[in-house]
Amino acid sequence: MEYFAHETAVIDHGCTIGKQTKIWHFSHIMPEAIIGQNCNIGQNVVVSPQVILGNNVKIQNNVSIYTGVICEDDVFLGPSMVFTNITNPRSAINRRNQYKTTLVKKGASIGANATIVCGNTIGEYALVGAGAVVVKEVLPYALVVGNPSKQIGWVSQYGHRLIFNNENIAICPESNEKYQLKNNRVFKL
Predict the structure, then answer these.
(1) For range 100-123, the mean pLDDT
(2) Cα–Cα–Cα angle for 108, 113, 114, nearest 5°?
(3) I want to staple 5 with a disulfide (CB 3.0 to 4.6 A). Which of 9, 104, 114, 157 is the partner?
């Protein structure tokens, strides 16, 4: 085995798990789930069938990732954050053929206790604040908070708030990389 699974983790037959991935206490990886390399799956996490997790995805405790969710490389999912996969669930009505796709793009981070309503895309390097409820697309590098979530700014790939000058240029205080704001979109220069 090229990955680590705690003895209490349940790994179903038919899933794919990349090298150097760690799966911790009481987590359940279901059939047809695809998990990349060097991922860290915290305690009490459920990864449902057909979920796709890229490389270096970090999932904190108590997260359920339902069918229809795709997380690209370097995604961070904070403790107890929530994904949905049906827009109008009913106990007595089977809607398994109506799962919506939710895409979390490369480098995005979702804070603790946030809820991502299905069918939305979280853009590259976006930052969803703790407790936010995302009901629409989140742009790349956007910082969103609240219920429903509202964009309140932009962040760098390192997760620092970007402050743009008169020429619409910002510099990340940690990496010193430059970003440009153009037509309500941020681009790394």
Answers:
(1) 98
(2) 45
(3) 9
| CA pair distance 144, 150, nearest whole angstrom | 5
Has residue 56 got a pLDDT over 90? yes
**Contact assessment for residue 63 and residue 96, using Cβ atoms and an 8 Å cutoff:** no
Closest CA to 148 of 117, 186, 126: 117
Residue (of 89, 43, 40, 47) closest to 64 by Cα position: 47
Torsion of CA 47, 49, 53, 58, to 10 degrees: 0
Phi-psi region of 40 (alpha: psi -120 to 50; beta: other; left: phi over 0): beta
**Burial class of residue 180 in the structure, from the number of CB atoms within 10 Å of its CB (0-12 exposed, 13-18 middle, 19+ buried):** middle
- Cα-based torsion angle of the residue sequence 51, 86, 123, 147 in order, rounded to the nearest 10 degrees: -130
Token digits of residue 71: 């997380």
Mean pLDDT of the chain: 97
Q: What average pLDDT does the segment 76-84 reach? A: 97
- Residues 163/179, Cβ–Cβ less than 8 Å: no
Phi, psi of 96 (to 5 degrees): -60, -20
Q: pTM to 2 decimals?
A: 0.97
DSSP states of 25-92: TT-EE-TT-EE-TT-EE-TT-EE-TT-EE-TT-EE-SS-EE-TTEEE-TT-EE-TT-EE---SS-BTT
Considering only CA atoms, which of 48, 116, 51 is closest in space to residue 78? 116
